[in-house]
């Protein structure tokens, strides 16, 4: 369906089942203003309209200029309002309430007990692909602490000749990662392994060309200062990095020489103020060609190092 005012078309998303709602732009915008008056962030509300109602941000912007246009939502205003009020009352992440999260070119199913993929972690994939040796299209790689499986899915889809391993200690996250790998039909190319960091990879120690990880790196004492939407709902196992935030990173770096193949690459995400400490750990472990990589805001957020040889 395309609604039209004058000669300017305003596309409307398709309805999803019997709850699809046809509404004018002025009615929708008035409802939006009323709910935003209850509190919350306008960008978060528009995200809910997108993921929960099927109304893309560009479509929403067009409606401001065409108040008589009609738009069809996926679902009812009552359902969307209930989700918004629940978000305001309990601080539950909208990603959990809607059940999915946009990330790179994916809409990943997510649920409580699983870390919500962050935008900056998309860069970890870009870095891995840019540093991936062109002569190793069939490389073996591993994602330590896979969570939703976002990194593993992105790597497997980008390098279809490779073989991957996704390691996860959380039972809830293992279920979600397994479902997500199945959704993209990657079970034959990515092996899901339960356990901590390098331990489940024992049969492949010394044969991994690339290892990526977005481990927990928030110092334990600062967890209470996080926003309630994170602190009270996302899994502590995926957030708490120990007293200095480096407990998981130490374990990963310590096993890198044993786990990586000669010439293999370790690529880590860390807190924006941990770059120097992480670099020291990589150096002490015997890795070489160390590098610091910036996030979307220009802050040192990623570190890489290579096992000698190869």
UniProtKB/TrEMBL annotation:
Residues reported to bind S-adenosyl-L-methionine: 145-149, 168, 197, 214
Recorded catalytic activity of this chain's protein: L-glutaminyl-[peptide chain release factor] + S-adenosyl-L-methionine = N(5)-methyl-L-glutaminyl-[peptide chain release factor] + S-adenosyl-L-homocysteine + H(+)
The keyword Cytoplasm appears for this protein: no
Residues that hold substrate according to the record: 214-217
Enzyme Commission no: 2.1.1.297
Keyword Methyltransferase: yes
Entries under Pfam families matching the protein: MTS
Alphabetic keyword roster: Methyltransferase, S-adenosyl-L-methionine, Transferase
One GO BP: methylation
Ranges in a coiled coil: none
InterPro entries, A to Z: DNA_methylase_N6_adenine_CS, HemK-like, RF_glutamine_MTase_cyano, RF_methyltr_PrmC, SAM-dependent_MTases_sf, Small_mtfrase_dom
Record-annotated Methyltransferase small domain positions: 137-220
Annotated family: Belongs to the protein N5-glutamine methyltransferase family. PrmC subfamily.
Name of this chain's protein: Release factor glutamine methyltransferase
Taxonomic lineage from the root: Bacteria, Bacillati, Cyanobacteriota, Cyanophyceae, Synechococcales
